[in-house]
Amino acid sequence: MTPPFPELDWHEPLPLHGWFLVAPSRQLKRGAVTTFDLSDLSLVVFRGEDDVVRAVQAHCPHMGTHLAHSSVHGSSLQCPLHHWRFECGSSGTSPGCAGPGASALLQPRPALHSYAVREACGAIWVTPRSESSAQPFPFFDGVSPDSLVYKQGTPVFLRCPWQAVVANAFDLNHFQTVHARALHGTPTIDDQGHRLEFRYVSKVTGDELADRIMRKVSGNSIDVTIHCWEGSVLTVKTRTQRRETFLWLSFLPVEGGTVVKPVYAVPRGSAPLLARLRVQVAGWLFHAFLKKDIRILERMRFSPRLTPEEDPYLCKYLSFAARQGSGSIPQPHSPQPL
Ligand code: FES
Ligand SMILES: [Fe+2]
After folding, report:
1. 118 is in which domain, residue-wise?
2. Among residues 46, 81, 87, 112, which is most buried (max CB within 10 A)?
3. Ligand 1 centroid distance, CA of 165 (Å)
């Protein structure tokens, strides 16, 4: 009999190639450089003097100096050791950052490998793919980015692999036991290739403060649409009788666990100040919901044993998660002899 999902060591972090939230935009000023590490891949992310953010390989192709301490000149990055300067073009989407020679003695100079980068939702995001092979950025169908007001949440570190944290979003059986939620009707799940779509309508059965507020503002019918994008991002849209709220959760595998970075958003509407207040409330309600998962997932040794009869949604998610990270990602140049 075909197993419902691949038999893997599910506790070991599976590879990921999707989009990752690096930092809130405000933390990377013009001329500043920051770092981003994903497994064995190290990048530096910098904001040029033209205000454009770029992501490139972290190690200088000359002798391997880490470029975290390089300096920014216009749209170029200058290595701190021998001052090779790498021109990264007028946009963050150039195929590579060329290294023109300041000294003929040091020719030829390879280019820096560049990676796709986006500024969206008030944050900087990268993917370990080049611009030409990047998958679509995780956003909400039919929603204009400018129509939303965003709030960056506080990152959380969890000692368990990313696939265990993301599985929580597809685990309907814990909705009642952990979140005091029940379902209206039957959920739907649709594997769309690079993303997995999960939709359901829930109602609140609990009686904590956040439950009572949610019940009141929602009319006790919450239409939820979740997309899992390549495993590295979950987007969640909740729609009630009165309004919509939006959530991004970025999952970054790190030594010993996973860092989860949230971003909340609500429609800007015609009263921006009111929207700012509403996004604070939305962030608080989402956090009240998610913090129940956080304490339970901590130190989980993920080893799912399920049948499609018990949980068809989670089985479908596990098949999707096992598929992520397949294929190769562009690797930067090694230091080369001159
Ligand atoms: S190591 Fe970067 S220029 Fe020499
Ligand atoms: Fe949960």
Report:
1. 20-133
2. 112
3. 40
102, 198: one domain: no
CA of 78 to the centre of ligand 1 (A): 9
Flag whether 52 is in a domain. Answer: yes
* pLDDT (tens place) for every residue of the chain, 338 residues total: 678 888 888 989 998 889 999 999 999 999 999 999 998 899 999 999 999 999 999 999 999 999 999 999 999 999 999 999 999 875 443 445 666 544 434 456 788 999 999 999 999 999 999 999 999 999 999 999 999 999 999 999 999 999 999 999 999 999 989 999 999 999 999 999 989 999 999 999 999 888 898 888 888 999 999 999 999 999 999 998 878 999 999 999 999 999 999 999 999 988 889 999 999 999 998 898 888 999 899 999 999 999 999 899 999 999 999 998 665 555 665 544 44
Residue 12 in domain? no
The 3 state secondary structure assigned to the chain is CCCCCCCCCCCCCCCCCCCEEEEEHHHCCCCCEEEEEECCEEEEEEECCCCCEEEEECECCCCCCEHHHCEEECCEEECCCCCCEEECCCCCCCCEEECCCCCHHHCCCCCEEEECEEEECCEEEECCCCHHHCCCCCCCCCCCHHHEEEEECCCEEECCCHHHHHHHHHCCHHHHHHHCEEEEEEEEEEECCCEEEEEEEEEECCCCHHHHHHHHHHCCCEEEEEEEECCCEEEEEEECCCCEEEEEEEEEEECCEEEEEEEEEEECCCCHHHHHHHHHHHHHHHHHHHHHHHHHHCCCCCCCCCCCCCCHHHHHHHHHHHHCCCCCCCCCCCCCCC
